[in-house]
Amino acid sequence: MDSFQEFVDSSGVEPVRGFLHTPSAPDGSALVLTHSAGANCQAPLLVAVADAFATAGLTVLRCDLPFRQAKPHGPPMRTAERDQAGLRAAVEAMRRKLDDATSRIFLGGHSYGGRMASILAASEPELVDALLLLSYPLHPPRQPQQLRRQHFAKLQTPTLFVSGGRDTFGTVAEMEAALELIPARTRLLTIEGAGHELLSKRNGDALPGLIVEAFRDFVAAA
Questions:
Q1: Which ranges constitute the DSSP H helices of the chain?
Q2: Number of domains in the chain
Q3: What's the CATH number where 21 sits?
Q4: What pTM was computed for the model?
């Protein structure tokens, strides 16, 4: 049976703190997964997705970004560079954990966490093998002119985007247009009826497995 335990690593520039999901039948790959601006790594979406990936054979680290390690509540305030450094440290910690140069390492996050992951990957294209971006916050709600896609033209990492059909941070049409700016291979998985949180009572049983299946198919097609 797959399990998870608390994980702490202070050997990098930024400390890594979270929970490690260890699969019963590991496939030699790993996923670092982080949270949105208003949550932490205990968010139900992250727990459910991490469980599903571990069941599929991936070692999963769901971790708190540095801003959340510094304060239990409240949004990030001018911490983008430090939060990206925290994700880099988490990826490096997972490489040491797997201790295999051939292992595939993936990086993902929900909303703000996914944005930080994609900015980091755009500046360090060799860091991870693929990205999983859940509810990418393309713009603030009701402010479509404030687009957060400046780094998309530099993104060389294959990326699977998962967005709700009712997400106020970016419509399906807006997301499709934004993905055209990315030179790397991309795919948009739309969850019909879902909002920015993605997970709901209606889709809770099926959503994690759907995301895992889509991501595994996406990376296998490379």
A1: 44-55, 66-70, 80-98, 112-123, 172-179, 207-220
A2: 1
A3: 3.40.50.1820
A4: 0.97
